[in-house]
């Protein structure tokens, strides 16, 4: 059992970002307002609890738009899709509700703009991530995905004087800084967006983890699904800062051995994890003698994205 001085620190900001909140509310409103069935292409966000909850309400999740009956309603996930998907939806006369995060849509627009100039676009990210698949599809013959430092050192482009850079939004600055530096050194004319592509929420949650470890946290628990890129990055940031850190799906994932000898547990959640799961973990730790401290407000970032027009209340 922990000593009396041991405590839980509920980190803020944590949990839903504006893009995730928008995507989930889009599905909820579609279920309430439109005639069922409502199909969703892929996981609306990368969180199993969210997907299971929406499935129980009647959403039907499919791997591709080709599985949706002609003329039905389909919601596109927050991660964005390639233009080919929109074309397929049109061919099947599907009613499309696009829940793509506006920050991801911004990266898509950047790729289109750079590609129109004939540039080779270097996309820093993970090849198999839904967001990168969709972004690459904007100009598949001109986009090259760069996953790590080694690829940054060896990637070849047609014209070194016509190269642009974009980034998967859910990475961390720690992930990308060295890669971007290498690419700049190799391609001095490299074009890139003035404000960068990494999501504000991704960076804010990572910074909060760093601050918690700097303040004395010796264990970081991040609530999120295994396929959540931003949640995995938060764990990596915690470990790099010097704490033990683990990604947990829910309260059942907590290993009691992790708590042995720990005096301050920083509890947080990835941008697609609901607060209810955080509260359950906090209750478990409190039951084991940890004092609850930190913020009861998951996020006060002040960012709100308008819903797709198809589900806005008149």
Describe it for me?
With 314 residues, the chain is α/β, with parallel strands linked by helices. It folds into three domains: 106 residues, 4-hydroxy-3-methylbut-2-enyl diphosphate reductase, catalytic domain (Cobalt-precorrin-4 Transmethylase, domain 1), CATH 3.40.1010.20; 83 residues, Rossmann fold, CATH 3.40.50; 84 residues, Cobalt-precorrin-4 Transmethylase, domain 1, CATH 3.40.1010. Helix content is 37%, strand content 17%. The protein is built from ten helices and twelve strands. The strands form three sheets. The protein has a five-stranded parallel β-sheet with strand order 10-9-11-1-12, sandwiched between helices. The longest helix is centred in the first third of the chain and has 16 residues. It is flat and about 60 Å long. The model has no long low-confidence stretch (mean pLDDT 94).
In terms of structural class, how would the helical and strand content be classed?
alpha/beta
Helix amount: 25-40%
Order of helices and strands: EHEHEEHEHEHEHEHHEHEEHE
CATH superfamily of the largest domain: 4-hydroxy-3-methylbut-2-enyl diphosphate reductase, catalytic domain
Label the CATH architecture of the largest domain. Answer: 3-Layer(aba) Sandwich
* Residue runs with pLDDT of under 50 for 5 or more positions: none
Q: How many β-strand stretches?
A: 12
**CATH class annotation of the largest domain:** Alpha Beta
Proportion of β residues? 15-25%
Which strand order does the major sheet show? 10-9-11-1-12
Question: What's the alpha carbon Rg, rounded to whole Å?
Answer: 21 Å
Mean pLDDT equals 94
Chain oligomer state: single chain
Contiguous helical run count: 10
Q: What distance lies between the first and last C-alpha atoms, to the nearest angstrom?
A: 55 Å
Number of domains: 3
Shape: flat
Might you state the CATH topology name of the largest domain?
Cobalt-precorrin-4 Transmethylase, domain 1
Main β sheet profile? 5 strands, parallel
